[in-house]
Every structure is written in structure tokens, then in C-alpha cells.
Design a protein that fits this description.
Growth Hormone, Chain: A, Rossmann fold, 3 domains, 22 helices, elongated, binds thymidine-5'-diphosphate
């Protein structure tokens, strides 16, 4: 399908992506430029803090108040028209900001721009499936990149304008706003040229009207009471959002009055926090791989809070820049951890609604924090107490930091799934593992375990399909019998006519495994693939160890020797009552399936014990759930720890 990878192969989607990149870039640049302009139009700390706070508050307000309405509008009007008109109007509004030059108009225009963006986004979202065809996953990745990846670019552009403005005397904010106007005009033309956007929803508009603000909050509270996990995650994420809001609301004033920096410094901070977030989202989960997510979320927020406290007391640009990047990294990590935790806890049927709810709660807390943060800085003002300069902005950042520290601790307390085990131990283990794995493999080793008829092979295939669609190199394999030698061993092992001593059986499984690891698993892991194996060492521990009553330690040593110590990154235990599982099996039972129900019950028990002993590595899923529910839980566990995929061409 041509030279373009993934969804970009579709011409319409390519055009839309360019429009999206331009609009997103415009949005970010607009954010920087409007705050800068607000500060430039007035004089003095107090006036500046009001102006900036006003611009930011009115920028966020439409999303909170109008979000429920716009989705409905977007489903009923011509999408291309919505996008084009919204872009043209935004062109005019951005152009007017520097030309009119009053704070009042700046605030009004900012709010209007926001309303238009709110209309643009659902129209775009609704068009994507038509334009991207069956490449939806890749399309979503690209949209995500376009939306957030443009933030650092905007920061760089604004920084350069800031440096130039010192030379030319032309304020960076003005030039940035003109550029902004240009990007929206260009985006309008671009969208206008896409002919294949269906004008209206081809399916009937969504039946469920999105909740209003009050409903969201009420439902959020009810939801938070539903389980410790949900409460812990919500507390953490809302707190983190609050701290972020304090930074966003005070960033401009902070660079200006505390760091004595200009527009370039502001852009630098903005850029570094975004680069931090992006890296944290992309690599964070992998970096803390092995530490339970329940135990990682709180500390991630805590460290982010620590960075804020540090910034507020050490006002040195270079150090502050570094601290904001670290802050972004941990915030990004916390975001992914929180969403994944919710994703694995919440039932599939209500997942969409839940995430919608979490999103709107986060927006509300961001808005509150921006507004409260700006107001607080303003109220405190600038004083000189003895030898020390007290600046409202620093104090507010300090308070935001303390809030994040508290929230981090709270959420750790609520979520801790191994209370009593000091966190220090996790950290030591993490450092050791990282050292050990640096020389080792770049891939990911995922194993499905469970009794007969648990649906392992189906789930393995479905997981592989998802990972492949996300661009991973995936190898699906199984034990026993994945290699030519293994196939012969398998025949021996499963033939009901074979008589085998328990030790003979254990050795044959081990021999198959040794061959499997050496010729299939390791080579694939070394080239960075995701290997999904249907059964591995734990099957021997359960069937030969518990089932055949061989000493557990000896079976473990045998497998360790056979695999040269290769341990899976993730083990997915599909747990099923053997009475049900065996009934699902079709065909004549093999040698192992012929064993008594009691045998299979012992095996199941051992699997569960193995999982309980290492909760970080295992996910236990009740295989009695619907295949879709099992699949969703499996994907939620594996995707976040998968290595970064290389985009493959289709
Ligand atoms: P298979 O047909 O692959 O079973 P399933 O579809 O349930 O995975 O047969 C593998 C059988 O071998 C299964 O009954 C479990 C048993 N087994 C062991 O006893 N020890 C082991 O180490 C392994 C890998 C499998």
C-alpha cells in the first residue's frame, strides 16, 4: 500500500493528520503566547498575576462547562464544515489578540478559541475511523503523537522567538500569535481539501448523553467509594493534576519574577516539562518494571511533589529546568500507572464511561488548581521579611509541592498491596534487576499458564494480534512441542500408551524446554521480540511438582538448569475450576488429561500458590469470565510493559 506506514497509507488520513499537527502546534504556541501577552500588557506583580490567571482560567473553563454539549453538536452537524469554520474563526481570533492589545479582549478571545477547539476535536475524532479504515490503532497513535508531540516543538519555536525578540525588539508573543493565526488558516485549507469526510454521523448519535459537571462529580464520589483501588488511584491522579495546575498557572510569573527570565526561559521550562512527560509515559513503566503498580503510583507522585518543593526553594534556572523535566517524567509515569490500574480493575462494560469520568474530574481539578494557584499567588503578593524576599509564586509552588507529597503518601497507604514490606526493598530489587538486565535481552517474555481448557492458546493468539497491530515483532510458541525435537518429545509425553516414571516425565518436559529456550525463545528475545509462550516452567512445578509429588525444589532446579535461568517478565495465569476446564476439552483425553480430578485440583492449587508468592510478575485472571473480559485484562497487563514498538509497514 505505498510508502506510508500504518494509517498514513490512507490519503485522507494523511491530510487530516497534517491539519491536526498544525492545529495542535497552534494550540500549544497559543498557550505560551497568550500567557506571555497577558503578562506583557500590564505592569506590576498584582496586575500580571490577575491577567495571567484570567487568561488561563478562561482557557480551561469552556472545556469543563461545555464539554457535554459539544459532543452532541459534533454528531449532528457537517463535520468538515465544523472543522473548516472553526479553523477560520481561530485564525481571526489569534490575529486580533495582538492587534487589539487589551487584556479584556485577550481573555474573551482565549475563551472563544477554546470553544472552537472543543468543537473541532470531536469532529476530528469522528472522522478518523472513516479516513483510517482498518488502521484505527495506528491512527490513534499518530493522533496522540500529533496532539502532544507538538508541545515541545512549540516550546522550541517560542524559545527561539524569545531570543530573537531581545535583538529585534519585536515581542515574541506578537510574532507567535501571527504564526498561530497562519497555522489555523493553513489547517482550514487542508481540511477543506479532504473530500471523503462523511458529513454527518452514519450511525445514529450516541444514545448516552455525556454527564454534566455536577453529575460527573457525584458519580465520581460514588465510584471512589466503590473500592480501595479506585479511591487510591483517584486521590493520586487528582492530586497530581492539582499540582500540575499550580505549575501551569504560575509558570509564566515564576520565570519572570523569581527566575528573572524572559520568554525563552518560560519556553524552556514548558518544553522540559513536556519532554519529561513524554519520556515518562513512554519509558516510565518499563523503568519500574517488576515493582507492583500499586506500590509505584504513590511514590511517583511523591517524587514529582519533591521536584516542586525543590523548584520553589532553589530558584536557579538550570536546576529548575532539570527539576521540571524530572517532575514531568514522574507525572507521566503516574498517569500511565493510574490509568492502567483503573483499566485492570474496572469492568469492560463501563470502562469507556469510567475513563470519561476520570478525564472530566481531572479537568476540573486542573482548572481549580490553576485558578486557586493564581489567586493564591496574587493574595500572598511580594514581600520582604527581614533578609528574605517572599514571593507569592514561590510560596504557591511550595504549597503545590507539599500537596503532591501528601497525596503521594496517602495514595501509597491506600494502595499498598504488600503492607509491612519496606519500599526500600523494592528499590534495591529494582536497581539489581536493572543491572542484571542491562546486558541481557531487549524483548519481552510473556507466558500463559493454567489448567486444561482455560483458553490459553486462544488468549495467546488474541494478545499477539493486539501487539502486532501496535507494531511489535511477536512470536507465539508453546510447550511442549515447539521445536522439531520437542514435537517428538511431545508425542511421547502425551501418548496415553506411554508409561513414564514421574522423574522420567519431568526430565522429558525439561529436555523439551531446554531445546525450546535455546532455539526459539532466547533468539527472539535478543532481537527485541515479544515472545508469548503457552506454558513454561510453572507447568512443570504444578504438574510434576505438585501433581506427581516430586520435591518442588528439585523440579525448580531442573527447570532452572534447562532454561539457564530464563524467567518470564509476565506470567498470566488463567485460573479455572478443573471440573469445568476438563469438560471443555474436545477429542480423546491425552495422558495428562486422563488424570483424576483430584490431580488437576492439586495442579490448580499450586499455580495459585506460585502466583500469590510473586504478585508483581503474575496476573491471575478468572478464566470463567467472558473471553473478551479475559482478553481486556491480559492486554491491560501486558501493553504497558511491552518494549517500544518499531512501527512496521503494512
Ligand atoms: P497441551 O495439549 O499443550 O495442553 P494444553 O492445551 O492444556 O496446554 O498439552 C500439554 C500437557 O502437558 C498439559 O496437560 C500439561 C502438561 N505439561 C506438564 O505436565 N508439564 C510441563 O512442564 C508442561 C509444559 C506441560
Amino acid at each position: 500500500m505505498g510508502r506510508w506506514p500504518g494509517a498514513l497509507a490512507h490519503r485522507g488520513f494523511r491530510q487530516l493528520s497534517l491539519a491536526l499537527v498544525l492545529s495542535s502546534f497552534g494550540d500549544w504556541l497559543g498557550f505560551l503566547a497568550t500567557t506571555a501577552l497577558a503578562s506583557q500588557l500590564v505592569q506590576g506583580f498584582n496586575a500580571k498575576s490577575w491577567a495571567i490567571g484570567g487568561v488561563l482560567t478562561f482557557r480551561l473553563l469552556p472545556a469543563v462547562l461545555l464539554a457535554p454539549l459539544v459532543g452532541v453538536v459534533a454528531d449532528r452537524v457537517d463535520r468538515r464544515l465544523v472543522m473548516v469554520v472553526s479553523d477560520v474563526l481561530r485564525f481571526g481570533l489569534f490575529l486580533s489578540m495582538p492587534l487589539v492589545g487589551s487584556v479584556g479582549w485577550l481573555i474573551v478571545a482565549t475563551a472563544l478559541v477554546e470553544v472552537l477547539s472543543l468543537l473541532w476535536i470531536p469532529a476530528k475524532e469522528a472522522s478518523v475511523p472513516h479516513l483510517a479504515g482498518d488502521q484505527l490503532q495506528s491512527a490513534n497513535q499518530i493522533s496522540l503523537f500529533a496532539t502532544y508531540g507538538t508541545a515541545p516543538i512549540a516550546a522550541v519555536v517560542f524559545g527561539v522567538l524569545g531570543v530573537l525578540s531581545v535583538r529585534t525588539g519585536e515581542p515574541a508573543a506578537h510574532i507567535a500569535l501571527f504564526i498561530d493565526a497562519g497555522t489555523f488558516l493553513f489547517a482550514a485549507v487542508q481540511v477543506f481539501r479532504i473530500k471523503d469526510i462523511p458529513s454527518r454521523a452514519t450511525v445514529s448519535p450516541s444514545l448516552e448523553e455525556p454527564p454534566t459537571l455536577v453529575e460527573s462529580v457525584r458519580e465520581g464520589l460514588r465510584f471512589a467509594r466503590s473500592s480501595d483501588l479506585v479511591r487510591g488511584v483517584l486521590v493520586g491522579m487528582l492530586g497530581a493534576m492539582g499540582a500540575t495546575g499550580v505549575v501551569v498557572g504560575n509558570g509564566k510569573l515564576f520565570t519572570e519574577t523569581v527566575l528573572d527570565g524572559g520568554e525563552a526561559a518560560f519556553a524552556l521550562l514548558f518544553g522540559s516539562v513536556f519532554v519529561g512527560i513524554a519520556l515518562g509515559v513512554a519509558f516510565g513503566p518499563r523503568a519500574v518494571h517488576g515493582v507492583s503498580r500499586h506500590r509505584a503510583l504513590g511514590p511517583a507522585i511523591f517524587v514529582a511533589g519533591g521536584c516542586l518543593v525543590f523548584m520553589s526553594v532553589v530558584p536557579v534556572l538550570a536546576l529548575v529546568t532539570f527539576a521540571t523535566a524530572v517532575l514531568g517524567w514522574f507525572a507521566g509515569l503516574a498517569y500511565v500507572l493510574g490509568l492502567t490500574l483503573l483499566g485492570s480493575e474496572v469492568e469492560d462494560a463501563v470502562r469507556g464511561r469510567t475513563f470519561g469520568l476520570v478525564n472530566s474530574l481531572m479537568r476540573i481539578s486542573l482548572l481549580l488548581a490553576v485558578a486557586v494557584g493564581a489567586a493564591l499567588a496574587h493574595l500572598i503578593g511580594v514581600h520582604r521579611i527581614g533578609e528574605i524576599d517572599v514571593n507569592g509564586v514561590s510560596v504557591t509552588l511550595l504549597l503545590g509541592g507539599l500537596l503532591a507529597l501528601t497525596v503521594g503518601m496517602l495514595s501509597f497507604r491506600i494502595l499498598d498491596d504488600r503492607p509491612g514490606v519496606p519500599l526500600r526493598r523494592d528499590l534495591v530489587a529494582l536497581v539489581r534487576r536493572r543491572r542484571a538486565s542491562r546486558s541481557a535481552r531487549p524483548g519481552l517474555f510473556v507466558v500463559f499458564e493454567g489448567g486444561e481448557g482455560a483458553g490459553k492458546s486462544t488468549q495467546a493468539r488474541r494478545l499477539a494480534a493486539v501487539l502486532e497491530a501496535a507494531g511489535h515483532d511477536v512470536v507465539v510458541t508453546r510447550e511442549p512441542g515447539a521445536t522439531p525435537v520437542g514435537a517428538k518429545i511431545r508425542t511421547l509425553l502425551l501418548d496415553p500408551a506411554t508409561t513414564l516414571s514421574p522423574r522420567g516425565e519431568a526430565l522429558l518436559y525439561a529436555a523439551d524446554r531446554a531445546q525450546h529456550v535455546a532455539s526459539v525463545v532466547r533468539p527472539a528475545l535478543e532481537r527485541g521480540a515479544v515472545v508469548i509462550s503457552d506454558r513454561y516452567v510453572d507447568s512443570s512445578l504444578a504438574y510434576q511438582g505438585a501433581g506427581r509429588s516430586l520435591p518442588q525444589q528439585e523440579v525448580a532446579q531442573l527447570s532452572h538448569w534447562a532454561t539457564d535461568g530464563l524467567v518470564p517478565d509476565v506470567t498470566l495465569l488463567l485460573d479455572i475450576d478443573p471440573a469445568i476446564g476438563l469438560a471443555r476439552a474436545t477429542g480423546s483425553p491425552d495422558r495428562i488429561e486422563q488424570e483424576s480430578l483430584a490431580f488437576h485440583q492439586t495442579v490448580r492449587q499450586r499455580f495459585l500458590e506460585l502466583a500469590a508468592a510473586e504478585p508483581d510478575r503474575y496476573l491471575v485472571v478468572a478464566a470463567g469470565l467472558s473471553p473478551d473480559a479475559v482478553h481486556a485484562a491480559v492486554v491491560a497487563r501486558v501493553l504497558p510493559v511491552a518494549p517500544t514498538p518499531r512501527l512496521v509497514r503494512t
